[in-house]
Here is the input.
Amino acid sequence: MSRVYSPNNMTKSLPNDESILHSSDTATEIQTTDTTPEVILEVKDLSHSVKSGQHTLTILKQVSLKLYAGETLSVVGQSGSGKSTLLGLLAGLDQASEGHIALLGQPLTQLDEDQRARVRAQGVGFIFQSFQLLPGFTALENVMLPLDIAASSTAKEEATRLLTQVGLAHRIHHYPSQLSGGEQQRVAIARAFASQPRILFADEPTGNLDPKTGSAIIDLMFQLNQQLGTTLVLVTHDQKLANRCQRSLTMLEGQLHGD
Ligand SMILES: Nc1ncnc2c1ncn2[C@@H]1O[C@H](COP(=O)(O)OP(=O)(O)O)[C@@H](O)[C@H]1O
Ligand SMILES: [Mg+2]
Here is the structure.
């Protein structure tokens, strides 16, 4: 949605003074007050294939998508339809076979692995279904990791604050193996939010949790999302979770449908 400022509607909101109307300062001011939302993710004709023995398996076909800052999007679809593959490509964890992805203004599909890692470190959070915590690190150390990478001088305090926020103040020195599934997922969420991502990708974040814990995790993501204004892209089987998102798309045999 882009706004058009014609001389007519400019005069309505400005004093009746020709010199103001023609001043370049006024033009600049009008530009900056335009509330057109920022595009945070743009995907064009994305396809992805992998070699499987003698054959080539096409997992994603011509996916296009545009997402604005602060939006919440769910992607639902049957197992094997390509959801995790899509999420991994959008977050720059993997390189797509064909098509274009712009993430946070960066041409992800033209970047090498190191450059994609830099984009991720600057503004991308990822929550995996299987938590993916480092087993040899405590909860605190797992959450401190992205902060340490970003050379934060307050990594410990910040990680402690985040773990407290997700209700784990009493578990910060525990190792993943000493935590329940729900607790591990909360550590993963604290870690994902540690770098204050502009966009968070979550792959079935409640898939391995009982309904009560799952529901608490969902509340937490939306609460943190609202506090930081983070864009959410959630892959889920959970209709309740999908319903809480502003937009919902369905993955069907590698193609994205809906909204
Ligand atoms: N690296 C790979 N090699 C071969 N097949 C793969 C690979 N990654 C995914 N697939 C296949 O692609 C399809 C989509 O997988 P995935 O994206 O994990 O689906 P979903 O997350 O919707 O369950 C599945 O049939 C899966 O087996
Ligand atoms: Mg999956």
About this structure: Confidence is low (pLDDT under 50) at residues 1-30.
